[in-house]
Description:
Blueprint: H1 3-15, H2 18-25, H3 29-43, E1 48-51, E2 54-57, H4 59-83, E3 91-98, H5 99-104, H6 106-116, E4 120-127, H7 129-138, E5 143-147, E6 155-158, E7 165-169, E8 182-186, H8 190-203, E9 209-214, H9 217-225, E10 231-234, E11 245-248, E12 261-265, H10 273-287
Amino acid sequence: MDEKDWLLLAAxxxxxxxxxxxxxxxxxxxxxxRRIRQIESELGCRIAVRTRSGxxxxxxxxxxxxxxxxxxxxxxxxxxxxxxxxxxxxxxxxLACANAYAISCLPGILKxxxxxxxxxDLQVVTGxxxxxxxxxxxxxxxxxxxxxxxxxxxxxxxxxxxPCYYAVMASPVDLARLPELPQIRLVSDAPLQACLxxxxxxxxxxxxxxxxxxxxxxxxIEMVRQGLGYxxxxxxxxxxxxxxxxxxxxxxxxxxxxxxxCACCRAEILNxxxxxxxxxxLAERAAxx
Length: 289
């Protein structure tokens, strides 16, 4: 087996799906299946079985996946060690980022950072804040940019980002009329949805009229732009849409409904030069007035 096989086994263990593994590794599903069967032939045992929900590793497959993860970590440590021997900052930064920040702020940050550190490769995965936090906790990324309340006892850096959420429409927003109007609901992680539900129950006695449920901010915003209803959106999503009308969401006590944005990493990971360079770069931007 080689590095590609290790990546394949680790991905299959995480995804528990041949389709998800293929998507993650930019392979076709038949290619994934074929290579898994070749690995099974090489090892002399069955490592994965198909199920109705996807795929499950056999006990032998779990052992193979553990071995693959171990080898990938050793290879990464070797690459880091070799990269740090040179005078220039080079290597890889593995970053997970919450969707809203990834859309509104991250591209500009990555462009500027890459201009300063052209020998550093940036590997970015995006998702909800809950998924981003899980990736940090599992160690699959070196740093994460997370929105909302997240208890983290190691290195934390608060980033500049609009924390507020808004009711957004194509026409002027009258909060009193929202129960009468169709809502375009953007799928949110559980903590954010709980905040939105609490805000709603503080103001209204009827449930919202859900006209559509979407899992992509651009789809939801386009529906709002076409006058199909209102939505609750982060101010980060709205930076490129000045024509949309909005009203800031506030709880009954007057405090705004919002989520702060923080970068998080483990203290020891800052001993890796490219990660330290990226962290210092974020800190400099956060300190700018």
